[in-house]
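In the previous chapter we treated chains in isolation. Here, by contrast, the input contains four separate entities that must be folded as one system, with a combined length of 1348 residues.
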Amino acid sequence: MIIVLRPDVTQDQVDHILDEITKLDLRPHVSTGEERTIIGVIGEEDVIRTLPVEAYPGVENVIPILKPFKLVGREFKPANSVVKVGDVRIGGDAFTVAAGPCAVESREMTLRIAETVHGLGAKVLRGGAFKPRTSPYSFQGLGEEGLKYLAEARERTGMPVVTELMDPRHVPLFDEYADMVQIGARNMANFTLLKEAGKMQKPVLLKRGMMSTVKEFLLSAEYVCSEGNMNVVLCERGIRTFETETRNTLDISAVPVIKQLSHLPVFVDPSHAAGRDDIIESLSLAAVAAGADGIIVEVHPEPEHAKSDGAQALVPEQFAEMMHKMRAVAQAVGRKV
Amino acid sequence: MIIVLRPDVTQDQVDHILDEITKLDLRPHVSTGEERTIIGVIGEEDVIRTLPVEAYPGVENVIPILKPFKLVGREFKPANSVVKVGDVRIGGDAFTVAAGPCAVESREMTLRIAETVHGLGAKVLRGGAFKPRTSPYSFQGLGEEGLKYLAEARERTGMPVVTELMDPRHVPLFDEYADMVQIGARNMANFTLLKEAGKMQKPVLLKRGMMSTVKEFLLSAEYVCSEGNMNVVLCERGIRTFETETRNTLDISAVPVIKQLSHLPVFVDPSHAAGRDDIIESLSLAAVAAGADGIIVEVHPEPEHAKSDGAQALVPEQFAEMMHKMRAVAQAVGRKV
Amino acid sequence: MIIVLRPDVTQDQVDHILDEITKLDLRPHVSTGEERTIIGVIGEEDVIRTLPVEAYPGVENVIPILKPFKLVGREFKPANSVVKVGDVRIGGDAFTVAAGPCAVESREMTLRIAETVHGLGAKVLRGGAFKPRTSPYSFQGLGEEGLKYLAEARERTGMPVVTELMDPRHVPLFDEYADMVQIGARNMANFTLLKEAGKMQKPVLLKRGMMSTVKEFLLSAEYVCSEGNMNVVLCERGIRTFETETRNTLDISAVPVIKQLSHLPVFVDPSHAAGRDDIIESLSLAAVAAGADGIIVEVHPEPEHAKSDGAQALVPEQFAEMMHKMRAVAQAVGRKV
Amino acid sequence: MIIVLRPDVTQDQVDHILDEITKLDLRPHVSTGEERTIIGVIGEEDVIRTLPVEAYPGVENVIPILKPFKLVGREFKPANSVVKVGDVRIGGDAFTVAAGPCAVESREMTLRIAETVHGLGAKVLRGGAFKPRTSPYSFQGLGEEGLKYLAEARERTGMPVVTELMDPRHVPLFDEYADMVQIGARNMANFTLLKEAGKMQKPVLLKRGMMSTVKEFLLSAEYVCSEGNMNVVLCERGIRTFETETRNTLDISAVPVIKQLSHLPVFVDPSHAAGRDDIIESLSLAAVAAGADGIIVEVHPEPEHAKSDGAQALVPEQFAEMMHKMRAVAQAVGRKV
């Protein structure tokens, strides 16, 4: 930690800061320049963070040096992690495709979509039984009934199921029906929910909040890991910017950036990033090329009857063509869809 | 709702769209221009929203006309709402100041701060017993013990207490100890929590998410109201932008904008918007001048020992001077602190 | 400057960096922590900046300590600057109102608006003769003819004129007709134009770019000052964010933040921040309360016939009422409109 | 254009609006719903845009239907455009790589880099002779001398040269030395410069402003085209967001979005988007996969001696490896580097 002092700092203020630092068994190094004096603080990371140094008189600025996360960091674990979801291994050489409807709408439609995407090469089934909707008047999901349909689709196809948890009181339900627990973008900083997910024995798909930095995203993953669950897959799904051509702006750079900072696998969700079906193929190909470990994508045979986000669903023909192209790009970068 | 069709739309596609609209007892009006054909849809609002028209073949764009919220809207209730918190009336002629520590740290400090801010003119006591922290390794709050200290401070000073609810399982605790339930910025789109708050008999202070538009903010309030609890105070607390001089960017325009769209009272939280103590006075005065109904501000006599957000806390002397100036500006705009 | 080294840095890399620093007569201080080694560099500011240290092998991150600007900084000149525009002094105790049409449209309209705003208390006349328009097919301004009408309005009312310079080849025209040269938000980083403005003998109104940080804004002012022209008034006019209720998001915090960093006067442009007339009064009152030195606002008696930005123009009645309220708030904060 | 009327609009206001519309030979269609009345306006595009309808009494909102650009639009020219730069054809089946130093620093270094990138497969030489720098105290480029070195490098390697124009008064210089005129991100809305570029006989590389929407970007291209120069290549180079891990956020979605809206070729600049060398390969591969027509990338054999942006320059070894991988991905998507 670097403490930058104000130009008008007094010697008493400096002494007071040095005292407080030394009391915590930390070592301060003072460097006096022509325009500013700075204090470097060396020592145990967590102890340093407890000092509210910004609030000390005479302090202009405090600059952290160490990364705020630990368990999710590559310095903690240099090799790539592989997360197992059922029999599917996420994060190795394979590029994994999770596909399915935005929301679970009916038993028939769920089974139909599951069989379709399975036949076209998807390895994980996605589908929301509990849906976070901006308006209280929108379709909120089928709830437990939806989880049952997903479980039935898993029996039929063998694909493990990823579905979103919104309420800590639903943990027993998800223990029973889900193979992977999704924490949605809106709940990325719902720390209550993150802690619950961290106590579960299931792998977690953690989506990046739409206005969260990569560092905050990794700290949310740290919440899950610090409860003992290291099976986390991170998912970039677009951040909010001023651009309105797309629902969100896919931060494709986040893929290689996270790969450098963390050992956890990284997915991309092109559907929510785009909010429109016509550019999803381009974004998915970009995800493969940029080094992502997989995508999670929405497929619906009748988007115009979808109860949620129809405009961004691929029809099976689009999905089939996209899978074909993704295989070619994956091969070019040494991976396998 | 306006449906803009693609230049290459076919007559079959148009007919199909008109069919679907008519089936729902809605009335479509077709206007054919030289470059685009558009369909205006007239009829009952909620029905229109269930159509995923963006997903229909031949559709380029869909433009909503009606506002997506209802109970919180000024069209639903033209007169300003007044929300009662204990004996304090928020939203009338008075400009209400809620003040206190960021986090409840100890019994002594809580009582000391409560008495200080009460003596200087604050009407509501703020303080967090459960703290949403970006890092799992930061101080997470005293929990129930903190609620008890707040309740004791209320007994001493008579000030009602506002404190943040993070977990739906804590509702009974908040029923017992809190006078007003705060939903924090990170949980603005935690719809599970919003519904629980809507079922409570307590007024709600709903903070705007740092990544949320005013419309989404009002829809979150609609979640609370639609469960039967109309006692909602909205709080602008800064949005996330590219600027780094401040922790967030206070969207001062949101105050008059929300006042036009909604009848609910509007607060400003200058502390979290700024993230630094030295501009809080300016932001608070701006809030009064712009027409806010109150502020919620952090005060701590020893910021350098604060366990959370010390850098943005005012010391009592700063708070006293700010109260003095706020009174003058409030009088200039016809209000009373 | 602080150089944070990678955990895997080699001693050779460290030595190489120290060598390069020492060659420039700078003094490096090495601090070795458990997880990172850092090098503090002390010495003459400009020299340090020429080192592309981020590109050195073994370097993880480089953190500047000193502010990148100089002439515009409060450390360079602690007292507030006053900028004279004709007989008007901007930046002292007075709160200055510049008002007028968005674009100069005709001689008659220009004179009529000038007399109106002058009668209501405006001290400076604004109006665009050259207009930066997003579309090449929009009205681009009257050019030199417009400048002449503004000059005539100055003769009639005595108000000095501020108008926007877009082309370095127009400097002679502006030397002849303008009292204050405006650099628009879109040209804040047009360094060619900034240098020309710096060579002129006229005061400059520099608008903040809509996606520029405060630091970049001050560096643009530094471009003007470093050419010898210290008569710069800074103008916050809203930044671009995800919020769409307003055209831009007025960054009201920028007012006190800039006041701390710089001695230059600060204006607010509520018209372009809002993009709609109905909240301009609230924003203007907030500007006074937050400590701005003035506003620049659009007034048009017939907004529905305005050739540019009609939706954000105040009619004279609105302007009159706003002036009345601004006077009250100004008095409350110890200033005078 | 759709005009949404306020709920409290009067019949007189409606009649007035209809009158004004009809006067312009436009056809209004009124649709009366339960909560809002809307007026659809059909007719010649440019005429509609001259009406400042937002400013009419009784109007709540105005919604454009037609796209604001014309010459750059795919509706104007459905087939992809190919832009010739010297003998290089941009926008066909080939994926074009422009490479070179950020700034031209010396004759020797320019020739050396040119030969290196040429040998590795680059087709166009990039390099800045005039440099837009945030600080007036940074290296501002060699000016005309730099242009001469670039021209000499062209003679040696046969590669055409793209370099940035910052000042309309430099047009004759660029006519003499450059093969392609770059308009930088900071000048994307410098309409004076855009018009000059439109009058030149050289192809233009137009970079997206970091604060500009895709629509505004296309309107800036429209400025160039409307002066008669249709040889424009658009370049996505990252937009400004809250994320700080990268200098800007590469908006990879802009590639397919622009391809749908416009016939012009689209480049990606991974160097300025990233601001760091270690993720440039990932971004470049993503650009190929997403359908871009080329990249423009910074290469420097000694980044630690670069006078500008050393941290984001690739060394030749990195560039060689990236070219190798780009060839594989290009082949996978049916293109050729």
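Residues 266 and 292 of chain D are 5 Å apart (CA to CA). The longest helix of chain D spans residues 316-332. Compare these points with the single-chain example from earlier in the chapter.
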